[in-house]
Amino acid sequence: MQEKKSCSCLTRRQFLLGTGGATATIILTGFLGYSEGKTVALQTSRYPRKKIAKLSDLKQDFPVPFRYPHDHYNCTDILIKLGVPAEDGVGPDRDVVAFNTLCTHMGGPLMGAYQNNHKVLGPCPFHLSMFDLTKRGIITTGSATQSLPQIMLEVKGDEIHAVGVMGLIFGFSDNMEIAGHQGGGR
User: What is the pLDDT of residues 53-66, one digit of tens each?
Assistant: First the structure.
């Protein structure tokens, strides 16, 4: 008969179950401390404040083109009143949003590709990517892997102002640096 050897070693499972909670707490606390208010405020304060439209002039499902944060082709955006509440939407019905109109995959033009029945922008003419405008421009189909850059909006009275960009505009390594992109684009 073989004798069973006794081992006082921890198994990997026992170790993870015993220390995993503490480790996760330390890691998450570190990340959350880094991304609190001061860091976010510092990043958004770099963007100019620009009046782009009047709330009273918007018609449901009729996109209004504008350029932000620069007068450059890659910064072509649309402002749209969706008629349904949207994440980060502004206005009394929280249904006014704005997005950049270049596909995040390869920069395909999405201007004129708004589908009001589904509240999506697309399909991109290059690889058929589509983006849900009610859910922060998340990709719904196609080759893109990133959401459309959403233009952050503020409403003061009847005026709508662009105040920042959430996401990286296609063709830029930094939304506020346009070195090498001078001349207004295409």
Answer: 999 999 999 999 99
